[in-house]
Amino acid sequence: MNALDRLTALLARLPGIGKKTAARLSYYMLDADPAYTAALVHELGGLRDAIHQCSLCGNYTETDPCPICTDPDRDRSLICVVEKAQDVRIIEEAREFRGLFFVLGGLIAPLEGIGPGDLGINRLIDRVRGEGIRELILAMNPTVEGDTTALYLQKMLTGVPVEISRLASGLPVGGDLEYTDRLTLSRSFRGRVKL
Amino acid sequence: MNALDRLTALLARLPGIGKKTAARLSYYMLDADPAYTAALVHELGGLRDAIHQCSLCGNYTETDPCPICTDPDRDRSLICVVEKAQDVRIIEEAREFRGLFFVLGGLIAPLEGIGPGDLGINRLIDRVRGEGIRELILAMNPTVEGDTTALYLQKMLTGVPVEISRLASGLPVGGDLEYTDRLTLSRSFRGRVKL
Question: What CATH number has the domain spanning B3-50?
Answer without folding.
Answer: 1.10.8.420
